[in-house]
Every structure is written in structure tokens, then in C-alpha cells.
Amino acid sequence: MFYWGGAVVLVVSFIALGALWQTPQLERRSIGRPLGGGLSRLVLGPVRIVVQAISVVLFLVVLAAALVGSSDPFENLAPTWVFVIFWLGLPLLSLLFGNVWRALSPWRALADAFVWVWERLGREARPLAVYPERFGRYPGAVALLAFVALELCYSDPSNPRALAFAIALYSYVALFGMLAFGRRSWTERGEGFAILFAYIARIAPLVVRDGRIRLRIPLTGLAGVEHVPGSVLFLAVALGSVGFDGYSRTTKWQDLAARVEAPYILDRPGTGELLVSGLNLAGLLLGIALVLLAFLAACAIARSTVSAPRPLAPEFALSLVPIALVYAVAHYFSLFVIQGQFVVPLLSDPFGRGWDMFGTAGVQPNLGVLGPNTIWYVQAASLVLGHVAGLTVAHDRAVTIFRDRQDALRSQYAMLALMVVYTVGGLWLLSRG
After folding, report:
1. Residue 172 pLDDT more than 70?
2. Nearest CA to 397 among 226, 233, 237, 238?
3. By three-state DSSP, how is residue 170 classified?
4. Residue 396: count of CB within 10 angstroms of its CB
5. What percent of the residues of the chain are helix, what percent strand, and what percent coil, each to the nearest 5?
């Protein structure tokens, strides 16, 4: 019923868009209305600096906890903070308030502080090299892939010591990238988290433009073409990784992993774990490839139906952003709500030493806050609404680039089929996990 229901909602939405949405709407509404100048100066000035300082302190606490804190991931702040509060909470903040990662990134804060001190010493802060445009967002896609591979493929991703190594390595790459190519270039091209959160922020009703905070209609930030090389691959990594996470929880995949590991589990357990990690990595790459190929095939079919003079993948790439977001919401929101509660006691005892710095160490999370039906309905509703949003973004782009209304509609037949496949496939993964 849910498979059919999701498909019907998309078809009805497609018909409504074709009948009612005949001219471009998103781009001309993306400028928004400026909020008060005093509010913008306060938020973008003193508040931003305070937030950056707090983010650096929290970053150092989490890194220290991972390095020298308890080796038990349930007693150590680092795993819960990285995989729940950071990885699942930042997309929500980005969706509501825009590109907050610009202020919350500890690496950007450290780079900003370095430049400020350097310039106060009378030096000119210049990058060491010019970022090659042909590299596009491929480094960012690799960075995001490395993180999701740690989370989904490594045998013990919550191990605090392994997490400390990953944090240190990522920090080195992020800081060196900004030193080498400049803060803005590396943030927009090579820093995987910054790119992902910036994409999600384009859905948000708040945006900073020309030094002012503006209020705009949600989704309008997704208007336009995504011409930066590697952008489609980056979004495929974001979407395909969540899809593989869902499939990896199915009985079929768990049985396959058990069969691969079984011959080595007694005599050579390390070899067995390594083989399972390799299997998971192959599955992850395959999931990303399937998402990417399905999107490129849909764009190629759309191009052939209207004889477009150029590839359409860059034109419709931003329609994947709301889909990647709702896949993450559908798969992880219950984890965020339930596991996120554990951060309250962990903040009082981040190293697992028996401390109670804020008087919250004894707080008991409510593990029954969400029922199975509630979880499923939120999952199904978010998936369907996200794909309707993706279809809307693609349709708006179609009526922008094709003057003939029939060409615009024909170009969207393949996109509609793609959205139906993504929706039904997502629901299937959630129902089997």
C-alpha cells in the first residue's frame, strides 16, 4: 500500500506541476527579504565569533575524549557526539537555519583565527596555490566517502581510538587544504562536511547574502545549474551511502557477511573482519554507483526526448539534494532521537571517569519515546515529501531551460520514473532493515 501510495502521490504531483507550474518560480524568489540590519550585524559579528570559539573548545574536548578517554564507546563522549550529534544534528540545523556550519566548523574557526593573527602581524594571508578548477568537488566526494566508509564498512567505527585517528587525519587534511588553496576554495570544493551541509542549507528559509541575513521561501536556493565538476558524484555519495546503510541491515546482507567471515572466525578473526570490511566497502561503492547511474540514465533519456544541445545532469543535479536529505532523515531520525539523549549524561562525564561536571551524569534516556508505527510513518512521509520536492526542483529547472512547454514536460518523464524508483526503493529498504 505504501509503495503504491508513494508512486501515486508522485504521479499526481507531476500532473499538478505540469498544469499549474508553467513558468520558473524558484530563482526569482531566491533573493528573499532582508531581516533587520542590527540583527544581521549581531549574528554575523559577535555571536559568530563566540560560536566559533565554543566549537573549537568542543572539538578539542571530543578529540581528547577519543584519545585518552574510556575505551568503552558507551562511556566516551566522542562516538555519540560524532555519529549522532554532529552527523545527524548538523543537517537538521542546516535545514532550519541555513549554512550554520560556516560558524560551527572548528577547522574554519581555526583558519579564521590564524588569518586574523597573521594580518595583525602585518603579513598578507594568501593561499599557497590556486585551486585547479578541473578538480571541482571530487576531493570533497572522496572526503565524504572516507567518512561513510568508516561508519558503514569498518568493523568497529565507534572505537574511540580509531575515531581519534580519523578526526586527526581529517583535521590535518582540512587545515592543510585551507592553507594551500584558501579558506573559501577548500571549504566549497574539498571539505566534505562543509559541502554537504551547504547543499542542505540551500533548502533553508534563511540565507546570508551581501552581509545580511535574508528570509526566503524554502527550496528556492536550489534553483539554477550545478556546473562545478564532481557535484553529481558528491550527491550520489551522500544518497547512495544511506541506501547501502539500509540494505546492509537486511537479513540477506547480514547472512552474506556471516558466510564470508565464518571460515576465519575461530583461527583468524582479524582476517574475517578485514574481509567483511572489504565486502561492505564493495557494497557501498556499488550502492553509490547504482544511484549515480540511475540519475545519469534518467538525464540521458530526458535529453534524447527533447534533443537538448547539452547534458542535463548539471541542470537537474540539485533535485537530488532534498532526496539525499530525506533519505538521511528516514534512516536515522529514530537513532538521533533515542541515541541523542545519551549526550546529556556524557557531557558531564566526557572521558568516562565517573565525573558529574554539570549534574546530568545520572540522567536516564527514555528509550521508548518512539514506537514502531511512529517511526514508519515518519519514514514514509519524509521519503514521499522529499521526492515531491526533488520533482518540483527538476520541473522548475525544466521550464527554465526549455521555452517550449511540451519539451519541458517530456524532459520530466524520465525524472518522474527516477523519483518513483528512488521512493519505492527507499521504502523497500526501510521495510526490510
Report:
1. yes
2. 226
3. helix
4. 24
5. 75, 0, 25
Strand order, beta sheet including 212-215: 33-34, 212-215, 206-209
- Spatial contact of 110 and 56, defined as CB atoms under 8 Å apart: yes
Cα maximum dimension of the chain: 69
The amino acid present at 252, given as its one-letter code, is K
Q: What does the CA dihedral 20, 21, 23, 27 come to, rounded to 10 degrees? A: 150
Distance CA(141)–CA(157), nearest Å, equals 20
Give residue for cell 521519503: 383
**Strand locations in 196-279 (E):** 206-209, 212-215
Cα separation, 81 vs 59, in Å, equals 10
CA atoms in the 13 A half-sphere facing the CB of 265: 8
pLDDT in tens, 82-114: 999 999 999 999 999 999 999 999 999 999 999
Looking at 32-46, 182-196, 334-348, which range is the least confident one?
32-46
Q: Which of 222, 371, 401, 246 is nearest to 309 (CA)?
A: 401
231-247 burial: b if 16+ Cβ within 10 Å, else e: bbbbbbbbbbbbbbbbb
Q: Which three cell numbers stand for residue 424?
A: 519505492
What is the Cα gyration radius of the chain?
Answer: 23
Residue type (1 letter), 208: V
Question: CB of 325 within 8 A of CB of 389?
Answer: no
Q: Residue 207 pairs with which residues in a beta bridge? A: 214
Collapsing DSSP to helix, strand or coil, 8 comes out as helix
**Cell 547480514 -> residue:** 254
**Best CA proximity match to 285, nearest among 152, 185, 195:** 152
**317 vs 123, 227, 421, CA distance in Å?**
41, 9, 17
pLDDT band at 347 (very low <50, low <70, confident <90, very high): very high
pTM over 0.90: yes
Measured at the CA of 262, the angle between CA 260 and CA 268, to 5 degrees, comes to 100
Measured N-to-C along each axis, helices 320-339 and 372-401 cross at an angle, to the nearest 10 degrees, of: 160
Q: Which amino acid is at 149?
A: A
Q: To which H or E segment does residue 33 belong?
A: strand 33-34
* CB of 107 closer than 8 Å to CB of 175: yes
63-89 burial, b at 16+ Cβ within 10 Å, e below that, comes to bebbbebbeebebbbbbbbbbbbbbbe
Would you say 215 and 33 are in contact if contact means Cβ atoms under 8 Å apart?
yes
Give the three cell numbers for residue 270: 582479524
